[in-house]
Amino acid sequence: MKHRAGYVNIIGNPNVGKSTLMNALVGEKLSIITSKAQTTRHRILGILNGDDFQILFSDTPGIIKPAYGLQESMMDFVKSAFHDADILIYMVEVGEKELKDEAFFNKIRNAKVPVLLLVNKIDTEDQKSVEDRIDYWKEKVPNAMVLPISAKEGFNVNVVFDKILELLPESPAFYPKDQLTDKPERFFVNEIVREKILIHYKKEIPYAVEVVTEDFFEEEEIIKIRTIIYVERETQKGILIGHKGNMLKRVGTEARKDLQKFFEKHVFIELVVKIDKNWRSNSRQLKKYGYNS
Questions:
Q1: CA nearest 119: which of 127, 42, 40?
Q2: What separation in angstroms does the CA of 129 have from each of 1, 148, 160?
Q3: Can you give the pLDDT at residue 34?
Q4: Measured on CA atoms in the order 91, 94, 17, 150, is the torsion positive or negative?
Q5: Span 185-288 CATH architecture
Q6: Which residues of 117-146 are buried (b: 16+ CB within 10 A; e: fewer)?
Q7: pLDDT for position 36
């Protein structure tokens, strides 16, 4: 039996549903999902194994025009997705017409690997609108196979998966067959805490936050975690903590529940808020937090 393996890299504008699709394909919640733009900051790998295949799904940040150092690093993750892709997934919404960055769009149109262009959120439009969008994208990106999907509802996700298997090149596995992702446990603690902040805070707070897990001790019946939430200003620290610590307690409680599901074990998590001034524009701090080399 011939074995197949390869990278399936997912790109698109913010809020297009990339993380929802990857989680659906992998069958695990590896990428956090909120309604806010720039929820995904890193390139996250989800590994799906079968007897004769290994698919390396890669979720990337949404394509934006960067305004500061953090966003530039996020776009570097997107650029890297073009270099090692065996199959490229370009996701658009039904009403979307083009990428915000023409250079990325040209890379897609001139890609040397198979391109699946997925028109997502079709459950929000009527059939005629969906058909018009499909025709539009077939003309716009003639090198791509265009498929309508609803990642949230699971519509046509199985069709996408079958097509990926069909296109996957022959190759030995890149990772051990029992491995689910290339990220360590602490990364998912950070992401789950950041997801709760994205959900419960408005304006600048979610984008000024960086989360770092300093301690992760796994015992037989419980995991003990200490996580630092960094913000850029004292006023942001006060908002994040809230009156008598109520807002931070809410973040911790919800994060703990999700972490217990993720690790399938009891979790104790301590959250501490600290200030790291202007970290989003500081190349040294960005490197420390894993955003650039």
A1: 127
A2: 43, 11, 21
A3: 54
A4: negative
A5: 2-Layer Sandwich (3.30)
A6: bbbbbbeebeeeebeebbeebeebbeebeb
A7: 56
Q: Which residues of the chain have pLDDT under 50?
A: none
CATH number of 4-167: 3.40.50.300
Measured between alpha carbons, how far is 156 from 171 in angstroms, rounded to an integer?
Answer: 26
Q: What share of the chain is helix, strand, coil (3-state, %, to 5)?
A: 40, 25, 35
What are the boundaries of each domain within the chain? 4-167, 185-288
Query: How many other CB atoms sit within 10 Å of the CB of residue 50?
Result: 11
Q: What is the pLDDT of residue 103?
A: 78
Residue-level pLDDT at 100 = 64
The rounded distance, in Å, linking the Cα atoms of 222 and 245 is 25
Which alpha helices (DSSP H) does the chain contain, by range?
18-26, 69-83, 102-109, 127-140, 157-167, 185-200, 205-208, 234-241, 246-263, 283-288
Pairing of strands 115-120, 266-275: unpaired
According to DSSP, residue 153 is labeled T
Per CATH, 4-167 and 185-288 having the same topology is answered no
Phi and psi for 25 in degrees, rounded to 5? -70, -40
